[in-house]
Amino acid sequence: MIQNVFWFLTFLAIISACMVVFSRNPIHSVLYLIITFFALSGHYLLLNAQFLAVVNIIVYAGAIMVLFLFVIMFLNLRRETEVQKPIAVKFAAVISGLILLAVLLGALLKADIQPGSEVDSQIGLVENLGKVLFSDFLLPFELASVLFLVAMVGAIMLGKRDPGEPTI
Amino acid sequence: MEVPDVIKTIPLNWYIFFATFLFCIGVVGVLIRRNALIVLMCVELMLNAVNLLFTSFSAYRSDPQGQIFVFFIMVVAAAEVSVGLAIIVMLYRNLKSVDVGILNKLKW
Amino acid sequence: MNISTSVLLIPLLPLLGFIINGLGFRKISKGLASIVGTATVLGSFLLSIYTFNYFLSNNSQPITVTAFNWLAVGDFHISFSFLIDQLSLLMLLVVTGVGTLIHLYSSGYMHHDEGFGKFFAFLNLFIFSMLLLVMGSNYVIMFFGWEGVGLCSYLLIGFWNKNKSYGNAARKAFVMNRIGDLGFLLGIFLIIAHFGSVEYSEIFGRAASVDTATLTMITAFLFVGAMGKSAQIPLYTWLPDAMAGPTPVSALIHAATMVTAGIYMVIRSNVLYTLAPATLEWVGIIGLATALLAASIGIFQNDIKKVLAYSTVSQLGYMFMGLGVMAYSASMFHVITHAFFKALLFLGAGSVIHAMSDEQDIRHMGGLSKSLRITWITFLLGTIAITAVLPLSGFFSKDEILMNVYMHSPLMWGLGVLGAAMTSFYMFRMFFLTFHGTFRGTDYQREHLHESPISMTLPLMILAVLSVIGGFINFPEIFGGQAWLANFMEPLFANAKQASPEAFHHAHLSHSEEFMLMGVSVGVAILSLIIAYVMYVSRNTVPAEEGTPIPAVQKVVYNKYYVDEIYDMLFIKPISALSYFFYQVFEFFVIDLLVNGIGKLVKQLSNLTRRFQTGTTGFYVFAMVIGIVVILLVNFWGFLFR
């Protein structure tokens, strides 16, 4: 049963990832990406990482992808205006991507990967993660807030229109 | 202590291969698309592949630090996307296009 | 006064004078500059006398005064400290005493010169360096002073630097000295390598435990330094050229003090030299050769200062000859008396030049005895002193050296006496040509003949007195004297005697032999005097003017055996030809080709590779991915395909 779920989610993720890359319409890409994120959240649930599953949906599928959609609609990119790269370039890109895959897979196949001997299924729960996050990782956590602030300021600065600049 | 079924039945290797696949799809996407938005999305895809890898290792080895790391990656990704999208908007405003092929001034 | 304060003040006073005159020579008036310059050296002289008295009243115990720790490298320390013993006290008295007189003289001689304050600053700096040289308690401080006096010599020879040939003479002196200094430096390095210290006390205490070959090497290198500084063959040619400097400089630096640094150094290192008889042999031979060569050149020179310069080289040769036969105290004796009469002669020559409106050629002088009475008398005393006629100071010191040489080798003695004869001849030749006969200068010069001011004649008179009585500080036992100097210097050789007792063991001459030797040398000197008198006073011969044909042998000697030309041919011409070759061929075909070729190659390659800089972001990403793949492949190659 659980294997079937795993394979279903895996294929769903891979196929929709491929569709993100190959679909012509940006909006479709976004939607496929959302599907991919949902599939990944499913995987997180299987791994008992419930906190991450929820956060993934809220942050990625919710916030970030909505932002993407918003920008696409804002810029009015529904039309398939994208200029395509030459077929040779695409071919070369795919080939190099495949070589990368082959090298990584080859190395990983040969690697001796050992799962831990003792498994504690509770680590992914909010309570446990929170304890670790607010004890060992308190400083990075606080710094992350600074990062957000900087990103926010930066985004506003970039998006602000200079006086006299024409509207879109 | 209850162990998730998937850990019992699915080897860790499958997750690693899966994550590698996703990552390579992201790479190919970055390489063949010219729409800056799609390129950004493919970057997100690669980030998520890495997230999955972290999470699976964390779960299989019962180490919460991996998941904490994923959490921080999400933080950085959110910041990155906000800035990246702002850049794309500005790009569009100046060039009336989101084609990365137009950005060819980075040369001698 | 505290003795260490007084010792520290001895070199500090001239340094103070240098700083005042050196910084303020544009602002300070001439009178003040000469007062500052002279008073500081006089202060040092008085302090030296005070220190000398203290030393005598304190049972002649050596005093070491450490100013500060200068260099510390790990366990190796060099302290900036001064050693006051018999040798340094004698040198101190000579340097500061003669130095004071020459400063006084300079205030009159240089009075019309615009660089007056600068001149005094340099003189003070020289005195400071010389004091460091003789007072230092280790070889590094000696080297410091050694370089300092070399620098001052350079500055002062080229003092009138608007004249290009004077500047060249200064450079020649500097370069020649550098060759010697390199040897000296190598000697110091060897000492550090073998003794692990540069302090005299430590080195001399342990010298006997080092093998003879090493000591021979050390002493030979040190002697190379002495050759340069004390103008011995083959590094002597700079000294006659150094006469380009103002006459007081010639008197102070190139006659009385600096050139004796080499002798001081050998006497200071007497333990090492005693233990290295092979080097001593060479010291003696080179000294003798220099004495003869310089004396023979001196016979035909017509420049009053050149004659004195060659006589200085020759006298230095005698001193080294004395050192070569281990007559250390006799050489020191000659250093002291030579300082008196050579300073006197140079200052007298300066007075003559002053009176003759800067004429230096003795062919254009003559009959000056009537107008320059004081100069004439003092110059005569100096001349008699240098020609070693009884009982002036030169007689005692030179005779003591010759006596020791005779005990070592009668042949060397014979040659030494020959040199003494030549000395007597050329000195009196110069004296007669200058002061006797008829006046041969221009009418302008005749009208302006005048005796020098008191500030110049006073030092002459003092030095004349010293030249006359200076010999009595080492009045030999044969005349019922005490040989005070030899006894005073005895403790200096204690280490050497302990290390090698047999070296000091030589036969004593009987009194009749001693009288015989003295008689011969005095007789020879007087004979030369008579020949010179007959030639230049009775027959009124005047050396030929430039351009008139002269016999071949005389021509060779007159041109100083063409040594400068030989050096020019042997060293300068080949090096300059080689440099020219490198400049014309190597520079053009190798260096330029290489440099320009590399430039062109880079340009070509970059022309090729710049095509990769398409500027398209997509291409860069692609290149990055390829790069990552390559890096991974390289890293995992062995892992993947093992």
TrEMBL record, chain A:
Top EC class, one word: translocase
Keyword entries, A-Z: Cell membrane, Membrane, NAD, Quinone, Transmembrane, Transmembrane helix
Gene Ontology MF terms: NADH dehydrogenase (ubiquinone) activity; quinone binding
EC number(s) given by UniProt: 7.1.1.-
Membrane topology: Multi-pass membrane protein
Pfam families per the UniProt record, alphabetical: Oxidored_q3
TM ranges: 6-23, 30-47, 53-75, 87-109, 137-158
One cellular component term from this protein's GO annotations in UniProt: plasma membrane
Subcellular location field: Cell membrane
Catalysis: reaction(s): a quinone + NADH + 5 H(+)(in) = a quinol + NAD(+) + 4 H(+)(out)
Domain of life of the source: Bacteria
Function: NDH-1 shuttles electrons from NADH, via FMN and iron-sulfur (Fe-S) centers, to quinones in the respiratory chain. Couples the redox reaction to proton translocation (for every two electrons transferred, four hydrogen ions are translocated across the cytoplasmic membrane), and thus conserves the redox energy in a proton gradient.
PANTHER family given in the database record: NADH-UBIQUINONE OXIDOREDUCTASE CHAIN 6 (PTHR33269:SF17)
Family to which the UniProt record says this protein belongs: Belongs to the complex I subunit 6 family.
Protein name, UniProt field: NADH-quinone oxidoreductase subunit J
UniProtKB/TrEMBL annotation, chain B:
Role summary: NDH-1 shuttles electrons from NADH, via FMN and iron-sulfur (Fe-S) centers, to quinones in the respiratory chain. The immediate electron acceptor for the enzyme in this species is believed to be ubiquinone. Couples the redox reaction to proton translocation (for every two electrons transferred, four hydrogen ions are translocated across the cytoplasmic membrane), and thus conserves the redox energy in a proton gradient. NDH-1 shuttles electrons from NADH, via FMN and iron-sulfur (Fe-S) centers, to quinones in the respiratory chain. The immediate electron acceptor for the enzyme in this species is believed to be a menaquinone. Couples the redox reaction to proton translocation (for every two electrons transferred, four hydrogen ions are translocated across the cytoplasmic membrane), and thus conserves the redox energy in a proton gradient.
Membrane-spanning intervals of the chain: 12-32, 37-57, 69-92
Keywords annotated in UniProt: Cell membrane, Membrane, NAD, Oxidoreductase, Quinone, Translocase, Transmembrane, Transmembrane helix, Transport
Catalytic activity: a quinone + NADH + 5 H(+)(in) = a quinol + NAD(+) + 4 H(+)(out)
Membrane topology note: Multi-pass membrane protein
Membership in a protein family: Belongs to the complex I subunit 4L family.
NCBIfam families: PRK05715.1-2 (NF004320), PRK05715.1-3 (NF004321), PRK05715.1-5 (NF004323)
Assembly notes: NDH-1 is composed of 14 different subunits. Subunits NuoA, H, J, K, L, M, N constitute the membrane sector of the complex.
One Gene Ontology biological process: ATP synthesis coupled electron transport
UniProt-recorded Gene Ontology molecular function terms: NADH dehydrogenase (quinone) (non-electrogenic) activity; quinone binding
Top-rank EC class of the record's enzyme: translocase
Pfam families assigned to the protein according to its UniProt record, in alphabetical order: Oxidored_q2
Localization per Swiss-Prot or TrEMBL: Cell membrane; Membrane
EC number, as in UniProt: 7.1.1.-
Gene Ontology CC entries for this record: NADH dehydrogenase complex; plasma membrane
Organism, scientific name: Xanthocytophaga flava
The name this protein goes by in its record: NADH-quinone oxidoreductase subunit K
UniProtKB/TrEMBL annotation, chain C:
Top-rank lineage group of the source organism: Bacteria
Keyword terms: Membrane, Transmembrane, Transmembrane helix
Single GO cellular component term: endomembrane system
Topological category with respect to the lipid bilayer: Multi-pass membrane protein
Secretion signal, residue range per the UniProt entry: none
Main localization (coarse): membrane
Name used for this protein in its record: NADH-quinone oxidoreductase subunit L
Organism: Xanthocytophaga flava
Lineage, opening ranks: Bacteria, Pseudomonadati, Bacteroidota, Cytophagia, Cytophagales
